[in-house]
Design goal:
Elements (H helix, E strand, L loop, with lengths): L1 H14 L17 H12 L6 H8 L5 H21 L2 H6 L3 H4 L1 H44 L5 H18 L1 H28 L7 H4 L7 H16 L6 H4 L5 H30 L4 H6 L5 H33 L5 H15 L4 H4 L1 H26 L6 H5 L9 H16 L6 H17 L15
Length: 452
């Protein structure tokens, strides 16, 4: 009887992921590269990610092919950095924001980087839920003729996504693996409608590589795509800490993100090019009266929203945990989820999105630049024993990074929007940081022995 109870107890413990900022046990670091690729492909195509490709065509005046090429180039450049910044956490088995302590110091990571990352994840969780709910409302109205209240969808969906994030990485893997075939069917359905609609079609003239737009406009939208995704360097290792090896994590993220975004860019640019609409879920269903096709696309919209927000809630919980280290992982996930559900009930977060995104960009982009430059250039992608000791030094702070982050934020808000302030700020700080850090150190440790 006692043995049975012990077995049952162990089974219950495995139901929820309880590992916090401490290193994941080696026996649990067994996730292959293709599983990470599946996760990233599954979370790629959503209403928020269609935005930049669609705007490249609608407001930037780019053709279909130009929009896909420009935004894909910028996004893939960002994905390369995100994949590289997954290596510290994957090598140590720790979440991203905890690994950031080796770059900004414990105080810098806990009280500067992690709170900003938490706010960013919380905002995007809320916006994805609100935007997804609005799309689902529209599609359900088309399908049933009934205008269902906003909160009837937003609150239950937000709670479901939070519950899956609380369960942990295993839930993320299983959910995205289950959702991926459904998402691909839905995305295929959208493209089928685009190619067979009785109205305009993607003609040969639209599809051919006609690079006629000014190089400056293509560069602008490439930089916007880069900025949108490079902020992921702050959370890249939250899942790859469970990778079979750092290489598996790196190639899984890069492959999945690249494939996922190219699909997203094709659909987003097609929606803008054919129908001058920013949301493919709506533009495609507007071209058909088939209940079956509308149902498939509605299900795809729901699944895409759930997929991306499981990731937002999961990484946001770890950022919160790095700040409030006395919490358990479950407690931090519940706390993040509670705020996420509450914020998802305020559509103003979407209607005032431009202001919120600008403010968050001024905070997250300078931090992303410093973190990237520190690991890739200053540390040359290796961690020393000095760096690892910073994980335990609760009083350490990188004052040079803090000063540059402040200057970068000011620069971001001073630059005009037409100059792509996020991209310019990132480049300036990325280049300047190694120069400032040359010959300098901080914290109470001096020994520099290369370990990982």
């Amino acid at each position: 009887m006692k043995k049975t109870l012990n077995t049952s107890s162990k089974h219950r413990k495995r139901l929820l992921e309880t590992i916090g900022v401490e290193a994941a046990p080696k026996e649990q670091r067994a996730t292959p590269w293709y599983q990470f690729a599946i996760i990233q492909i599954a979370i790629a195509a959503n209403a928020g990610n269609f935005l930049i490709p669609a705007l490249a065509v609608m407001e930037g005046g780019l053709t279909f092919s130009e929009g896909v090429l420009a935004t894909s180039f910028g996004a893939i450049a960002g994905f390369i950095l995100v994949s590289l910044l997954s290596l510290p956490g994957a090598r140590l088995g720790v979440p991203a924001q905890y690994a950031v302590r080796t770059m900004l110091g414990s105080k810098g990571a806990r009280y500067i980087s992690s709170p900003i990352r938490t706010l960013t994840s919380l905002y995007w969780f809320s916006v994805q839920t609100i935007g997804g709910t609005m799309v689902i409302q529209h599609l359900m109205l088309r399908l049933t003729g009934i205008d269902i209240p906003f909160h009837f969808f937003s609150v239950p969906f937000a709670m479901l996504m939070v519950i899956l994030a609380i369960i942990g990485f295993e839930a993320v893997k299983k959910a995205t693996t289950f959702f991926l075939p459904l998402l691909l069917i839905g995305e295929g359905t959208i493209l089928y409608i685009y190619f067979t609609t009785s109205g305009r079609t993607l003609s040969q003239e639209t599809l051919e590589m006609n690079i006629s737009a000014s190089g400056s406009m293509m560069l602008l939208y490439a930089s916007l795509a880069f900025v949108q995704y490079v902020s992921g360097v702050n959370a890249a290792a939250d899942m790859t800490r469970y990778a079979k090896s750092p290489k598996h994590g790196f190639f899984g993220l890069l492959t999945g993100n690249t494939i996922g975004f190219i699909i997203t860019a094709v659909i987003g640019c097609a929606s803008a090019s054919l129908f001058n609409h920013i949301n493919p879920y709506i533009s495609s269903t507007n071209q058909t009266t088939s209940p079956m096709l509308i149902s498939i696309i509605t299900a795809t919209a729901i699944v895409s929203m759930i997929s991306i927000n499981i990731s937002n809630a999961y990484t946001g919980g770890y950022s919160l945990l790095n700040t409030f280290s006395r919490l358990t992982r479950i407690q931090s996930a519940v706390l993040f989820g509670t705020f996420g559900v509450i914020c998802s009930g305020f559509p103003t977060l979407v209607s005032e999105a431009e202001s919120f995104i600008s403010i968050l960009g001024g905070m997250i982009i300078p931090i992303s630049a410093i973190i990237s430059s520190d690991f890739l250039v200053v540390k040359r992608m290796r961690l020393t024993s000095e760096s690892l000791l910073l994980l335990k030094d609760s009083q350490s702070l990188n004052p040079y990074a803090f000063l540059l982050i402040m200057c970068g934020g000011i620069t971001y808000f001073l630059l005009p929007q037409s100059a792509s302030p996020g991209f310019l700020t990132f480049v300036i700080l990325f280049v300047l940081y190694p120069i400032v850090m040359k010959g300098k150190s901080y914290g109470n440790v001096q020994k520099k022995v290369e370990i990982v």
